[in-house]
Every structure is written in C-alpha cells, then in structure tokens.
Amino acid sequence: MTKFSVLAASLMILSSSAWAQNAPIKGVVELFTSQSCSSCPPAEKALGEIIKRGDVIGLAFHVDYWNYLDWKDTFSSADFTKRQYDYATSFGTSQVYTPQMIVNGLESVKAGSPNAVFSKMDELQKSALPVAVSASVEGNHLNIDAGNGTGEANLVLAIFDAKESIDVLRGENAGVTIVNHNAVTSVRTVGMWKGSRMSIELPAKEYLREKGYGCAVLLQRQTKNGTPGEIIGAAYIPGLGS
C-alpha cells in the first residue's frame, strides 16, 4: 500500500454519520506545547477558550524535546517538533519554545492570552480567511472543497483528539491533570491547490472512527525555503461523537 493509500484510508467516520461545517473560519491557531513543560497548562486552557469561540480553529502540536524531564508527553512527536522548527525558519529565527502560539501561519502571539490571539487576527485581516474552504462527512466519504484565489498552496489534513485529560505522574507537572484540547495526532498533505476551485473526496477510514477524533483542513502556502507559510483557508470537523 502506498503512503497516499494509507492516508486515504486514515479518515474513518461511522457509516451512518453526516456532518458539514458551514460557518466561515476567521483564523487558525497552532499551539506548540508539552505536558512536560510547567508553563504549558495555562496555554492549554487558553486554547480551549479559543476553540469555544467557534470561528477559530485551534490545534495543539505536542513537541518531544521536553520528554527528557522524566515525563514523556503522550501526544508528542518529532514531526511536530520539526513543524515548529520549520516555522522558526519561516520567521527567520533559530529559537523555539513552549508554549508558543502561531496565528494563521504568520506570527507568534502570547500563548496564555486568548485576547492577544483575537487581536492579532484582527490586525492580520479584518474578515475570514481569503479562500473559502469547506469540509463535510457523508457516510464513508470526507468531501473537501477549496474555492478560487491566487497562487498555490498545500491542502493539509490534521487529525486530532478533541479532548483528553492526562494525569501527569512525573516531571515538572507531576500531580497535575492537564486537559489537552485538539491534540494533533497526524498531519498529511493530501493535495495541491493552484488558485482555482478544487474538490477532492477521501474514503473515511481509520482515525475518525474513534470517538472524539476530528480533523482540520488547512490551505497553507509554502515559503521559498519550503517551510510552512500563510494559512489562507481552513475548515474544521470537530470530534465526532464526543
């Protein structure tokens, strides 16, 4: 089986379910976090508040570079650490830290402040993301549609666990229960958008068959270095059945 076949098989919804998101998305917030970092629990709480707003997609990418502090983050991945370092390259810096929030793939904001995130979105743009993106689940099919615009962008799928409470037993957060919101479990590029409307259909397999799992669809440009750039469109399917 090819890598794409594995991906296509990785989006599972119960065959009787149907869901579509119609509200426009104003922005995407990516939180780089770790259960092993004592500064991160307030940022996790802030992410939960951001997600409740409804017009903002919040995603948590758990890095692995704090795992040596006597606790291995249950969602951590070297892939997510690489994504954060790639953003650092995009921003012209070599520094990464947790907690860090990145808005629309463009700028960092104070991770513990939802108001700072919303203000940054208002500063970056006064309306929803410029390219309309929609996602719907019908039976065993995930349908994605991206509208007209300019330039090119990757169509990126991020699968996440919508809500999970973790009792941290060791390390800096020993004894703390952290509620992780939209903890990303995998990220894959599923297509290339070239400025004109496109629609794709993926079979619903694997990840979303689990209760509480959802996905975000990101239309994201690349920088000249090939690192993540501006997010120009997005859609959201919450944790179904959660």
In terms of quaternary structure, what is this? single chain
The count of helical stretches stands at: 4
Helix % is 10-25%
For the biggest β-sheet, the strand order reads 1-6-7-10
> Regions with pLDDT < 50 over 5+ consecutive residues?
1-17
Structural class: alpha+beta
Mean pLDDT: 86
The gross shape turns out to be globular
Largest sheet: 4 strands, antiparallel
User: If you compute it from the alpha carbons, what radius of gyration comes out, rounded to the nearest whole angstrom?
Assistant: 17 Å
The rounded distance between the terminal residues' Cα atoms is 31 Å
Q: SSE string, helix = H, strand = E? A: HEEHEHEEHEEEEEEE
Beta-strand content: 35-45%
Number of strands: 12
Layout of helices and strands, plus pairs?
Elements: H1 3-8, E1 18-20, E2 27-33, H2 40-52, E3 56-62, H3 78-90, E4 100-103, E5 107-109, H4 114-124, E6 133-138, E7 141-146, E8 153-167, E9 177-193, E10 198-203, E11 213-222, E12 228-237
Parallel strand pairs: 2-3
Antiparallel strand pairs: 1-6, 2-4, 4-5, 6-7, 7-10, 8-9, 8-11, 11-12
Salient structural properties:
4-stranded antiparallel beta sheet; 242 residues; alpha+beta
Could you characterize the architecture of this molecule?
- The two termini are 31 Å apart.
- The chain has 242 residues and is an alpha+beta fold.
- The N terminus is likely disordered.
- The protein has 4 helices and 12 strands; from the N terminus they run αββαβαββαβββββββ.
